[in-house]
# Entry
Amino acid sequence: MEQGTLTNRNHQGSVGPPSRRGFLGWAGATAALWAGWILGIFGGRRLSATAGEEAAALPEVPGNHLVRMQKELRQALTRPISRRRWVMVVDVRACSGCQACVVACRAENNVGPEGSYRRVPEGPAGRFPNLTNVFMPTHCVQCDDPPCMRAVPAGMITKRPDGIVEFDYRRLRGSYAEAARAACPYRAVHVDQGRLFTHGTPAVQAYETRPFEEYQGQWQRVGANTLSGAARKCHFCLHRIEAGILPACVTTCMGHAVYFGDANDPTTLVSEMLANYRWIRIHEEAGIEPRVYYVEEPIAGVRARNCATCH
# Structure
């Protein structure tokens, strides 16, 4: 595990329990972001370096991290894809284990009962009698040298210039899908078996059979373009990013524990956090260069913890 350095423990962008005013600001900003997402996805609008379209104006909410990250995302999309370096920063001090990000991820990406793009395991921390649980949101970390990519024939898994690891759903199936799943040290890959949560109930629900977008294609879990037998994982909600909208887990987290942005820009919130907090990357020792960072600052009342416990 690699650890960064702490330069300012009282960093202005630090995360703490949200106040009532902060919560209302978060709620208003989230509503604005959802409105933008609806316009972007269902209105056929896409943001890119060449789109030239004017996106809906974002509200001015001083100190609101969501609005700031949303603006930074839109700015990043004006640059060539090779100049973006998407990363995620997780502040475990702020995670309450509510699982809202897991639910939002499942709904966004139509993930079935076989697995989940996102998990929030928990592990004990501290020593008796000062014991507590620490929650560690985890998912695909978009390794720069992905073990899953080395486990299958060339082209089935590729690394985009912006850092996202992309699966070819048409080819990454069967034994190749199983090989990719087994190779991931984060247990972040699962194989979709086509089962539905509402199988065996009086009626299969439409939300499970609806078409959805991943990796520039439309898919379904049953019927045409089925993903049954394909390996699946988190992709930082690539379809949302390219529409100028933050990942679903980021916009859903009420504890302000999840941050996303372009680490190539030193002015972004994620860059500031990496410069001002101690952090680790899980399984850094494997040399795979993960792009998800965990803030490793002290937790009040906890004398010892190991972030690798949950991973």
Notes: The CA atoms of residues 181 and 187 lie 7 Å apart. The two ends are 12 Å apart (CA to CA). Residues 2-310 form a domain with the Alpha-Beta Plaits fold (CATH 3.30.70.20). Residues 1-24, 34-53 have pLDDT under 50 and may be disordered.
